[in-house]
Design goal:
The protein is mainly alpha-helical. It is 62% helix and 2% strand. It has two domains: 39 residues, no CATH class; 110 residues. The chain has a two-stranded antiparallel sheet with strand order 1-2. The N and C termini lie far apart (42 Å).
Length: 164
């Protein structure tokens, strides 16, 4: 049985599973019938760019770090060609996150502080991208694979744990 790519989150779905083990989405009939994921993903909105799911990107920040989520959102804005208008607040949040990390190294904030930072960023900035993508494309846009960002985040976290 071939693996399939979940059209909702980009996760790899094993064999004949009819739901994604990562996000719980039902696999589309096209994927269940053996069509490749690219054709199933592009059937809806052909002008939609390939994006990382902005909602999922924000949630990954809980596991890794708010910086991870903010960077993914910046990449999405670049692909959406909304660079100067929409991504400016996200770029400011990137700077704030870097300052937060520097302050963390001196003052040692407890872990829940990161969660508070992530929640404030989500409602102040990230929700705008979630809403923009939902209004412009709905669920009909190509999903970028999470493999490289997640492997990178795991590697960076491992380096921080080992050498930090």
């Amino acid at each position: 049985m071939e693996n399939k790519t979940c059209p909702q989150c980009g996760g790899i779905v094993q064999g004949s599973n009819q739901t994604c083990q990562f996000c719980g989405s039902a696999m589309s009939p096209a994927l269940q019938n053996g069509q490749d994921s690219t054709s199933a993903q592009t059937n809806g909105n052909n002008d939609a760019p390939a994006l990382w799911n902005p909602e999922a990107a924000a949630m990954w920040g809980v596991l890794f770090h708010p910086l991870f989520s903010i960077i993914i959102h910046l990449f999405n804005w670049r692909v959406l060609k909304q660079g100067s208008v929409q991504s400016q607040p996200t770029a400011i949040w990137l700077g704030a996150c870097i300052i937060f990390i520097i302050l963390q190294s001196f003052f040692g904030f407890p872990w829940p502080t990161y969660l508070i930072f992530l929640l404030v960023w989500y409602f102040a900035d990230a929700k705008k991208q979630v809403k923009y993508v939902e209004e412009k494309y709905g669920k009909n846009y190509k999903r970028k694979s999470w493999a490289i960002p997640i492997i990178s985040a795991i590697a960076i976290n491992a380096i921080i744990i080992i050498y930090g």
